[in-house]
Amino acid sequence: MKIRDFTNAQVASSQTARDINRGVVLNLIRRQQPISRADLARVSGLQRSTVSQIIEQLIREDWVVDGPTGRLPRGRRPTFIRLNERRAILAADLRPTQTTVGVADVNGKFLSQEIMSTTSGPQATIGELAARIRRLMDAHRHLEFEGVGISLPGRFDESTQRVIFAPNLGWAEFDLKSPIENATGLRVDLENAANACVLAEVWFGPGDKVRDLVVVTVSEGVGTGIYTNRQLARGLNGMAGEFGHVPLDPNGPPCSCGGRGCWEVYASNRAALRYYHESTAETEGPTFQDLLALAQSGDALALSALDRMAHAIGKGMRMIIAGLAPEEIVLVGEFARLWQRLGPVIEAEVAAAVLIGKPPRVRPAAEPGMARLRGTVALVLQKHFGPSQRGSDEEIFVEPGRSADLAI
């Protein structure tokens, strides 16, 4: 049962109902485009006149455009509606060694991508990132940019918008949002990398059909994004989901967060490389990409290192299953290239953690290499495609006997 707090609840206004209807129609267009006005009315349950008024408003706002004309055996030929692909989003995925910057349309299709090195200090990286974004804007002058979305290997303070926890970057607290906004004139939205992957699953993938899922990102560290009861969990100080920094062994290897024996020191890409180094006499080992290539060629030591990594991923996921009991766990990481071998190892560890019933479905992301970037596109768009421009934490109650089907 959902507990509702009626203390500050307000009766929905006509504007609230119009916002809800607008969001419903816009999302239906996004998911079912191209679609006719008649089909929108049928699928949404709204009156045709209401749908027509919403469509005219969305056309004026440049969110949708008229598409092709359909053919029917008789009667008026319908005009199909689709999203306006001239609306675009700038996306960036900041990682410890490299940062990817791209331009995507409203459907999540990337029109351009660039990769730059992430330097040892925030100021140089931010300056180069701002310059790259400006160049992409200049190269795509025909597009109407809606904003900039950036995924982070860490957390930011929602009140100050400053990055406050990014141990794998090794930087102190810093301001990423303001310099990019000043350089571009666009609004910048920040999101933790794992949370961005959740948004990608829900917005562009099959995650919209699931009520509770967890995304586990495995790269230099281990991150977790939690989607529960169809809401992205943020928690106190925006720190919900930091399972990667839960100590599994207080006497274990040191972690970048300052602790010891955290989950990510056993389950990350760095952990797999450490396992490989421990089994060889080489002073300089391969990169993680090299390790994957060695494993794919049948190298026994590389396969053994990745098997240990997979066991550690699965064992750590027992915390998630015991605490959250999600329907589905989605894994994002380069290791998923060997899912046929490593997937069953992780699934076996997950199954062992279930006390009753079926274990959650465990699967790799459809496009793990694009998950963070696509999530930042959804991050920017969701403010316009939601049922309301009001905060997601606010409950909206419709007065009994009234419908959301109100004229605009």
Q: How does this structure look, described?
A:
- By secondary structure, this protein is α/β, with parallel strands linked by helices.
- The protein has 3 domains: 15-84, Arc Repressor Mutant, subunit A (Orthogonal Bundle); 87-198 and 372-384, Nucleotidyltransferase, domain 5 (2-Layer Sandwich), CATH 3.30.420; 206-365, 2-Layer Sandwich (Nucleotidyltransferase, domain 5), CATH 3.30.420.
- It has 12 helices and 15 strands.
- It has helices spanning 14-32, 37-44, 48-60, 122-139, 177-184, 193-204, 264-267, 269-278, 288-296, 300-324, 339-353, 371-385; strands at residues 35-36, 64-69, 79-83, 87-94, 98-105, 110-117, 144-152, 155-156, 163-165, 188-192, 213-218, 222-228, 231-232, 328-333, 361-364.
- Helix 4 (122-139) runs parallel beside helix 5 (177-184).
- It is globular.
Structure summary:
Helix content is 38%, strand content 20%. The chain has helices spanning 14-32, 37-44, 48-60, 122-139, 177-184, 193-204, 264-267, 269-278, 288-296, 300-324, 339-353, 371-385, and strands at residues 35-36, 64-69, 79-83, 87-94, 98-105, 110-117, 144-152, 155-156, 163-165, 188-192, 213-218, 222-228, 231-232, 328-333, 361-364.
Helical amount? 25-40%
Contiguous runs where pLDDT drops below 50 for at least 5 residues: 388-408
Q: Determine the number of helices (DSSP H or I, runs of at least 4 residues).
A: 12
**Number of E-type strands:** 15
Envelope shape: globular
Order of SSEs: HEHHEEEEEHEEEHEHEEEHHHHEHEH
CATH architecture of the largest domain: 2-Layer Sandwich
